[in-house]
Amino acid sequence: MSKISAAITAVGGYVPDFILSNKVLEGMVDTNDEWITSRTGIKERRILKNENEGTSYMAIKAAEDLIAKKNINPKEIELVIVATTTPDIPVASTAAYTATKIGAVNAFSYDLQAACSSFLYALSTAASFIESKRYKKILVIGADKMSSIIDYTDRATCIIFGDGAGAVLLEPNQEGLGLQDEYLRSDGVGREFLKIDAGGSILPASHKTIDEGKHFVHQEGKTVFKYAVSKMSDACSKILERNNLTGEDVDWLVPHQANLRIIDAASNRMKLPEEKVLKNIHRYGNTTSATLPLLLFDFEKNLKKGDNLIFAAFGGGFTWGSIYLKWAYNSN
Ligand code: COA
């Protein structure tokens, strides 16, 4: 019997209706459309405004979209991984709630947190379960409600992030399609440069932490930017080298959408023409765990069976990496 690989066989997605444009941000903080567009490539982002709804709301919508499109019985799903940095509530798993709500009653489920690399790591984890023949149907959802941890008086961060969710189904493949190779890394040196100071075990929530605004994302943008460019490009080069690929063999670069300049730097180093680079940052900003599956969701019709996809991400921690995957189907 030929080797089993883990293939993406369906995609779903969801973004909230509410659009926060650069123009609206101009009225909230000292910024302007020209600065945001030229420094980041972002024009607008989606915000989940529904009261009492968290990340699971979007994760469920993305999963339901996938289930309806693929016409699968959710009872057949064996594992649900929700990649997220903004779980609904501490302690109780967002994935458990999501799985129950979508009717995946025979699945076990868990959250996976690796900041902006969460989805990439989740893809790797899920693929191992498929390759080992342990499970045959795994749902990986990347979802984040970044607006819940952003200070909308801080122009350094509020212009970047947005809310959204994307989902993929992983199934065994015997045609040599699916995940081919991965290069994943992390380095704790990054902890100081991109984080939320309070609310964790080091500095639990108190009146003081709230008064001092320590429950919002804080980042040293320039440092994160430099690391992101170097590490993401490096990971892509490694994965190409290891698989004897050049830019010409790559059909699509699927890069984390944090900053258009980071994406351009990585794609230039791979000598990729612009039309091979998937981008939707102008519409959604940085949705953290959702950027990669939302790219697949938006560009699903462009992807053809056998296409070579190179995923790349970089995030807080630091965490980063690249995955080489052969696309497994043509969508109608
Ligand atoms: N509008 C207008 N001006 C702004 C601004 C805003 N929203 N944010 C910062 N500025 C100003 C700064 O105050 C600074 O002014 P000064 O030169 O008078 O001090 C100037 O613009 C340059 O700021 P800087 O922070 O050096 O800009 P930058 O070119 O590094 O861009 C980021 C800032 C955040 C867009 C960029 O660093 C970045 O994208 N970093 C990586 C972010 C990221 O990927 N995070 C998620 C992890 S995946």
What labels would you give this structure?
332 residues, alpha/beta, Peroxisomal Thiolase, Chain A, domain 1, 2 domains, five-stranded mixed sheet, four-stranded mixed sheet, 25% strand, binds coenzyme A
Describe the structure.
- With 332 residues, this protein is an alpha/beta fold.
- It contains eleven helices and 13 strands.
- The strands form four sheets. The chain has a five-stranded mixed beta sheet, with helices on both faces. Strands 8-13-12-11 form a four-stranded mixed beta sheet, sandwiched between helices.
- A hairpin with a 3-residue loop joins strand 12 and strand 13.
- Helix 3 packs across helix 4 and helix 8 packs parallel to helix 9.
- The chain is globular.
- Bound molecules: coenzyme A.
- The site of coenzyme A has 21 residues, from helix 2, helix 6, helix 8 and strand 12.
List the helices and strands and how they pair.
Layout: E1 5-14, E2 18-21, H1 22-26, H2 33-40, E3 44-47, H3 55-70, E4 79-83, H4 94-101, E5 108-112, H5 118-131, E6 138-145, H6 155-158, E7 163-173, E8 178-186, E9 194-196, H7 207-211, E10 217-219, H8 221-242, E11 252-255, H9 260-269, H10 281-284, H11 291-299, E12 308-315, E13 319-326
Parallel strand pairs: 4-5, 4-6, 11-12
Antiparallel strand pairs: 1-7, 2-3, 6-7, 8-13, 9-10, 12-13
Helix pairs in contact: 3-4, 8-9
